[in-house]
Amino acid sequence: MAGIEHNVSGHTEQSDAPPWHISVLQHLNPVGRDLFENYSKVPSDNVIEHITIFRDKAFKVYPYPCLGRWGFLDFSICQSASYAEVLDRVKTGQKCLDVGCCFGQDIRKLVHDGAPSENMYGCDLRKDFMEIGYDLFLDKRTLKTTFVAADIFEANSDLRKFDGQFNIVHAASFFHLFDWDCQVLAAKNVAALLKPGPGSLIVGRQAGNVISGPGKGNIFVHDCGSFIKLWKQVGEETKTKWNVEAQFTEDVLGFAPPGTRWLAFTVRKL
Predict the structure, then answer these.
(1) Per-residue burial over 7-45, b = 16 or more CB atoms within 10 Å of its CB, e = otherwise
(2) What UniProt keywords apply to this chain's record, in alphabetical order (predicted)?
(3) Above 90 in pLDDT, residue 41?
(4) pLDDT per position as a tens digit, 195-215
């Protein structure tokens, strides 16, 4: 979760709450309730209060929309058409990185579903979020996942020591934080983390729009065609080939501009 500072800076206190801040969690989906009750062992009656405490703590660190609107509770990785493949591959020993992982919530979903936690890695710009994740999911002593605080754009970040080591990268609500050129650079840096040769996979979802183009706050918003075009450029500049599948799912509700949709994608190295 990097690069969105120019969009949400200035909103760090709930007294000056931005339009994407929802104070009360009205509903927790079955995936989330199962995870908190059966993975984290939070008593059923305490789940909402428990989540709220640590969401509010994280929102004071930085007021990302995915925190303000409780979007981190979507556990979007399990909504991916490639989720079964990702889970099976991690179970067999392959390594998966969640880039822009926030609390590591999607990592916990994979682990709860049987993925060995030592095969999972998480990266976020803000170490605070990953530390809060341990308190949120109550697994500091048991989770064997490696977390790295790093900026995807820094050539000498700690993340670069993992270049060429991952079979799978999960990137949810990540690329859409940047303008076109920065998305190309971010995609190239993510691609460098993947193992050489065919079969490596990048999966995720992000906010898109039925009309692609520059968005508010120096970002580029994709439709399916422009997202495919971006990866074509990445391939040309890195002399690699990618099969890209992208599709819109449901509308993004709330403060987002008209025409905003979730754009789900699978990018497979050929």
Answers:
(1) bbeebeeeeeebebbeeeeeebeebbbebbeebbebeee
(2) S-adenosyl-L-methionine, Transferase
(3) yes
(4) 999 999 999 999 999 999 998
Length of the chain: 270
Rounded to the nearest 5°, which phi and psi values hold at 107? -60, -45
**78 falls in which pLDDT band (50, 70, 90)?**
very high
DSSP β-ladder status, 213-215 and 219-221: antiparallel
- Report whether 80 contacts 266 (CB < 8 A): yes
Domains and CATH numbers, the chain: 5-71 (no CATH), 75-269 (3.40.50.150)
Q: Which residues pair with 194 in a beta bridge?
A: 166
CB proximity list for 65: less than 8 A, separation 6 or greater: 8, 18, 20, 71, 255
Distance of CA 4 to the CA centre of its chain: 13
Predicted local distance difference test score (pLDDT) of residue 125: 95
Per-residue CA distances from 56 to 16, 132, 134, 136, 160 (Å): 14, 11, 15, 11, 32
Strand partners, 120: 96
